[in-house]
Specification:
InterPro entries: NTF2-like_dom_sf (IPR032710), SnoaL-like (IPR037401). It holds the Pfam family SnoaL_4. It comes from Aurantiacibacter gilvus. By secondary structure, the protein is of the alpha+beta class. The chain is about 25% helix and about 35% strand. The protein has three helices and six strands. The protein has a six-stranded mixed β-sheet. The two termini are about 35 Å apart.
Length: about 200
């Protein structure tokens, strides 16, 4: 028969595993919710998923610091209206979670379908290297860094090259310069990994 101390140790270990599983689920839902909100132009809801001092960096356009600046950046994206496709599917997660510290890091792939009827249709794909923090009991995005691997015109395909990255956002200056300089396909880019092994 196990001793009381051994039983208490087992219970503690199970509680630790249960918390880790809950954190994994919550982080998966957090990142997926971000994708769904951006898809439909619900930019305030997307911004609310960021920590108060969270950052956003996409396509080498610089870093926007703080939830209010993230919100401002998102509101400069195209609105979701009739004739718009703006899908950002959040796929292939690799998560490393420190439940006790309330911090986590994640690598994701986003597959993008972007189109405006009568104007353009594009495929895109990016790697996210993100960090997360538990704030007021809820997981929030501490940093979202989207490294665009390619944009390609739908009718031409990526085998004919790619669309050059737009390096700025009209009417909006970043708070910090890009983390690193790069160009997307046909140039080869590898987003820095937050992990060496799994």
């Amino acid at each position: 028969m196990p001793t009381t101390e051994e039983l208490l140790a087992r219970i503690e270990a199970l509680e630790t595993r249960a918390l880790a599983a809950e954190d994994y689920r919550d982080l998966m839902n957090l990142q997926a919710a971000y994708g769904y909100y951006v898809d439909k132009g619900l930019f305030d809801k997307a911004a609310d998923l960021f920590a108060r001092d969270g950052t956003l960096e996409i396509a080498g356009r610089g870093v926007y610091v703080g939830q209010d600046r993230v919100r401002e950046y998102l509101h400069h994206l195209p609105p979701y209206v009739d004739g718009t496709i703006y899908n950002h599917m959040q796929l292939q997660p690799v998560l490393h979670i420190d439940s006790e510290a309330g911090t986590a890091k994640g690598r994701w792939r986003t597959l993008m379908m972007v189109g405006f009827i009568g104007r353009e249709g594009r495929w895109g794909e990016a790697t996210y290297e993100n960090s997360y923090v538990r704030e007021n009991g809820k997981w929030r995005i501490a940093s979202l860094h989207g490294v665009i691997n390619f944009y390609a015109e739908y009718e031409e395909g990526w085998h004919k090259g790619g669309v050059a990255l737009l390096r700025s956002t009209d009417g909006l200056q970043p708070d910090r310069p890009p983390s690193f300089e790069y160009e997307a396909h046909p140039k080869a880019v590898i987003a820095p990994f937050h992990y060496d092994e799994v």
